[in-house]
């Protein structure tokens, strides 16, 4: 499978596909990644504890039966672990520290290795939160944003892993993006079971950061649910322990989908109330009451301005054609997965494949969002 099939990147890092191995303390090291994530586009090692306080907290966690990483020289260990990943995947290291110095040192190591540094604002174990790391950072936004700004000063590609439904998620996302992070790694946890898909959609609508989503990804269906709400990538954790072949299965499935459909994380339709802002690419002419008007308003557009943006993009492209469709142009036509003999007849006449049509629709979605910014 060619690495350029998905054309996914964050800063200087390229991903061969949108499936990641998530960090699991005491579990996700290079040996585990090489064995269980040979096909992944990204492996996130760790979490690694960088300073005396986090190492001590990890020791306490191990004493009560949890698995954690402890190293005499965590920086040498991180460097060795990055280089030991032999799968061809991009590599990230998830880290914790109670002070900035060790984070900057780890960032320099990651950058030199062409890897990503991931700041852990996710761990909810009391030993870590009581010393101000992990999920405690979600309650201390000034400190979190200060850490992000200083880490980004090293030039490293930075991911921030957070747990959803803990604080005001949209405000948190805006602060993390404004501080300069490249990637948001969201554990879309909600009470009960499964991932909070509405949260994923809301966060997708509020940020342009590369978005990795996590929680209960156990099969292609659960991954597709996240992709269709705006995830650029999904990460897998405990599911790999239960099914060692899970990542390979997910990669195979999403690759076939992308080859056939042309847009692996195409959004749902806005009119169903499930589509994120990218779904505006599939919306018909806004001439009746429909959720499209709420999405347009979110972008600060009038209905006419929205029409003008779409028609401007269509000029000179195949989307301009389609006199026999509902609104006279393919630019107003829906997702290829929705049956429509009018649209399909035009595509057949033009010799345009489903994948080519969807790639044009993705370009249109990008065009809409590049020309307006959500309030």
TrEMBL record:
Domain of life: Archaea
UniProt cross-references to InterPro entries, sorted A to Z: Aldolase_TIM, DUS-like_FMN-bd, Methan_mark_9
UniProt-listed Pfam families: Dus (PF01207)
The DUS-like FMN-binding domain, residue ranges: 90-253
Gene3D superfamilies: Aldolase class I
SUPFAM superfamilies found in the cross-reference section: FMN-linked oxidoreductases
Protein name per the record: Methanogenesis marker 9 domain-containing protein
Organism of provenance: Methanolobus halotolerans
Lineage: Archaea, Methanobacteriati, Methanobacteriota, Stenosarchaea group, Methanomicrobia
